[in-house]
Amino acid sequence: MAAITIDQIKHQPEYLALTRARSRITWTLSIATFVVYFSVILLIAFAPDSLGEPISSGVTSIGILLGLGVILFCLLVTGIYVYYANKVLEPLKQAVVRKLEGAV
Record's GO cellular component, any one (predicted)? Predict the structure, then answer.
């Protein structure tokens, strides 16, 4: 039985596909989250008065709506990642494992 080294695993096409797919989704979702979060932070920093404006004639302000929007966006991003991990990353991981089990 030949031992499999880390370098052999790193050069397998299935492993490379897994790492590329994981990097693609994590960078995309991270950038989207940073843009939304820092947009709200910059709005708080440079236009704080606009956040206190009430929506129509009610008591709910634009700031509350934006805060809830950020929370909902983060929940959406988490859901997208979970869906992608189950549909794309897990099958790729299983392919790597099957290939390693076949090599041992």
Answer: plasma membrane
Task: Give Cβ neighbours of residue 89 (< 8 Å, ≥ 6 apart).
Answer: 18, 21, 22, 25
Do the Cβ atoms of 1 and 104 come closer than 8 Å? yes
What's the pTM? 0.82
Q: Whole-angstrom Cα distance, residue 80 to residue 31?
A: 14
- Number of Cβ within 10 Å of residue 98's Cβ equals 11
Judged by DSSP in three states, 61 sits in strand
Question: From CA 73, how far away is CA 32, in angstroms rounded?
Answer: 9
| Beta strand segments in 1-104, E | none
Kindly state the tokens that stand for 18.
């897994």
